[in-house]
Amino acid sequence: MMDGHELAEVAGAIGIFALVTTVITVIIVQVGATVRARAALAREEEYRRIAEAGLETQRRIERRLAETARSLGEMEKRMDSLEKVLLTVE
Prior knowledge:
- The chain crosses the membrane at residues 12-33.
- Keywords: Membrane, Transmembrane, Transmembrane helix.
- This is Secreted protein.
- The protein has one domain.
- The radius of gyration is 39 Å and the shape is rod-shaped.
- The chain is built from one helix and no strands.
- By secondary structure, the chain is mostly helical.
């Protein structure tokens, strides 16, 4: 039979095993949370970069559209004056 000393050793071993298991589990969970947080941060940074690139593209398109509208307006004026000249020649 086991005496009190041997039971204490078994209880201590079980306690230490439970403590080590708990510490390892907590470490694994925390490392996983850190990895997930870093991945989310990287993903958000990529979304931000894509949004900034899209915004810059939109601004560039707006500038080109304004230039095209200005050019079209000038062409309209020229066509009107050309029409007047042609009408006076007839």
